[in-house]
Design a protein that fits this description.
globular, 3 domains, single chain, D-amino Acid Aminotransferase, Chain A, domain 1, Dna Ligase, domain 1, 14 strands, alpha+beta
């Protein structure tokens, strides 16, 4: 099979903090790992993309090439991630991961939360603030984050606030630094789980992962901050290890998996995604749904796949297979026939 791996090339950040470049450039590692995993069985081309996606694609016939879509935007514009997928769709490419509509929906946390609510899926109480003079009514403590970023951008040790003064200051920080509205959410002091899922019409959960915050004394600092995700030499990273499989009783595990599947389906995810949630008083609350999450070998999705006894190459092949399954492509499915794909049972909400 001919597989075209596309990832966005980022040399600078258009807004936010200078250190945000670390996560933006992390997709390069995923692209190289995917290329290495696929090359033994497929004809593979791996290309960085700045803004000229059409120019890159002009050399590859959509009837011959399948796109392994690792584009997290175009150039240094993560907000263009849905547009990149829309271009692939318009030109008739078969590609991995979620469709453009889902990428656009999940990038806008406000819209995503409204969809979750309309489907009866628990999510923390929230309010959008696009004006520094706006009256805010979210119960404190609250966590403040940019409304349209991922990878924990804009979330640091000061993101959780307990006073109206600090709330106002934090909102102003988001408005000024990220130049977009702030999403203010009620802070849930509970266990935090990451649920990796894959599939199309019948998504399956991989083993649950839990962020272990036991090393952090202050409950208001028990958050998955940017430093906890991307700065391995710092204390926040060291004090937030991930346990996979999570140590959780069967009943709670079923509830978490059921809510994760419901969120995945409600937002139209395809291929693979990760659902982040917190549990309070036995009830899982969805924090975010991340379509096309990081699949670097040391990232959470690959870790969960490994616990489920999938090697990294098997995981990558499975994601490629799902692209063909979604589009009923006779060119993809036979090429992957016989690949070992083990999946977990599918609990319902």
């Amino acid at each position: 099979m001919k597989v075209l791996i596309l990832y966005n090339q980022v040399d600078s950040v258009a807004k936010g903090e200078a250190r945000d470049l670390i996560s933006a450039q992390g997709v390069t590692l995923a692209a190289r790992a995917v290329e290495e995993a696929l090359r033994p069985k497929h004809e593979v081309v791996c290309l960085p993309v700045s803004f000229d996606l059409l120019g890159v694609l002009s050399h590859y016939d959509p009837s011959e090439w399948v796109v392994f879509n690792l584009l997290e935007g175009l150039g240094n514009r993560p907000d263009l991630e849905p547009e990149a997928a829309a271009i692939l769709e318009k030109l008739g490419y078969r590609y991995t991961g979620s469709p453009s509509e889902t990428l656009a929906l999940c990038l806008d946390k406000l819209r995503a939360k409204r969809v979750l609510e309309s489907n009866g899926i628990p999510t923390p109480v929230y309010q959008l603030c696009d004006d520094r003079k706006m009256k805010l009514s979210i119960p404190l403590p609250a966590i403040v984050k940019p409304v349209a970023e991922d990878a924990s951008l804009g979330i640091d040790s000061e993101a959780v606030v307990t006073t109206n003064e600090r709330l106002r200051q934090r909102v102003e920080y988001i408005l000024d630094t990220y130049r977009e509205p702030a999403l203010v959410e009620e802070f849930i002091d509970g266990r935090e789980f990451n649920v990796a899922l894959w599939g199309n019409d019948r998504p399956e959960c991989l083993p649950l992962a839990e962020i272990d915050y036991s090393g952090i004394a202050d409950p208001l600092r028990r958050i998955c901050s940017y430093a906890a995700k991307w700065e391995p030499d710092g204390d926040e990273y060291r004090l937030t290890p991930v346990i996979c499989p999570a140590e959780v009783d069967g009943h709670l595990a079923e509830r978490i998996q059921g809510v994760a599947i419901a969120a995945y389906e409600a937002l139209g995810c395809r291929g693979y995604a990760r659902v982040d949630m917190r549990v309070w008083d036995g009830r899982p609350y969805v924090l975010e749904v991340n379509p096309n999450p990081d699949i670097s070998p040391d990232a959470g999705f690959a870790r969960a796949a490994l616990v489920a006894e999938h090697s990294y190459p098997e995981m990558v092949e499975r994601i490629l297979y799902l692209a063909g399954e979604r589009l009923s492509s006779s060119a993809i499915l036979p090429a992957l026939k016989g690949t070992k794909f083990m999946v977990a049972s599918r609990p319902r909400p």
